[in-house]
Amino acid sequence: MAVIVTFAPVDICNESLGLLGKAKIGDLDNTADPVAVDCKQYFGSLLVAMLRDAKWNFADVDQELAQDAAVPLTGFAYQYTLPNDCVRVNSVNGIFNRRLWKVRGRKIHSNETSIILSYNQWVDDPNQWTGDFRQAFVTLLGSRLAMALNSDAVKSNDLYKLYQVQMSDAKATDSQEGSQEVMVSTVLTDDVREE
Fold first, then answer.
1. Mean pLDDT of 129-155
2. Rounded to the nearest 10 degrees, how much is the dihedral formed by the CA atoms of 60, 61, 64, 69?
3. pLDDT at 100
4. In what order do the strands lie in the sheet containing 78-81?
5. Lowest mean pLDDT among 48-52, 57-61, 93-97, 154-158
6. What is the mean pLDDT of the chain?
7. Between 2 and 63, whose confidence is greater?
8. Other beta carbons less than 10 A from residue 7's beta carbon
9. Are 108 and 76 in contact (CB under 8 A)?
10. 12: closest CA among 139, 189, 155?
11. How far apart, in Å, are the Cα atoms of 125 and each of 7, 9, 17, 54, 162?
């Protein structure tokens, strides 16, 4: 028998509150409940930080970008506007070398005449996260809430240390799902010694 478990953002917050021995909340949009207000505020800001921390397979998407009419003032010939849901640029045309492109605000500057952008998109549905990402997020949120709700620096620090271990495990697992990225030789890696 298959067990299907679904999660809502409020469930994630309640798991974090459980780490602190706090009562569950019923609604993240209840502005009369200061615990719900803190949970909602930290949920978004911490999720952005975690999505920016690594290239996550569940969040990674590709999109072809249209060239902007405006030209960058320095260094590159073209600019492109990042998609609204982009929280981290992973590569441009499969190139990871950031000397060949640069993020400037919500723009990509490049000398490429066309761009296929690989990026982490905003994914706030916990059902799309991997299990280890979700557990790391619960722990990080608990660490932040420990200070906000309990002013408990020791608990906050302990949870943050646990989060770091969980995050390391989540990144390792995520990186093993799929092919290895091919590293392209650059001037920095070419052997330039004279014979």
1. 94
2. -60
3. 84
4. 78-81, 107-110, 101-104
5. 93-97
6. 89
7. 63
8. 16
9. no
10. 139
11. 8, 7, 19, 18, 23
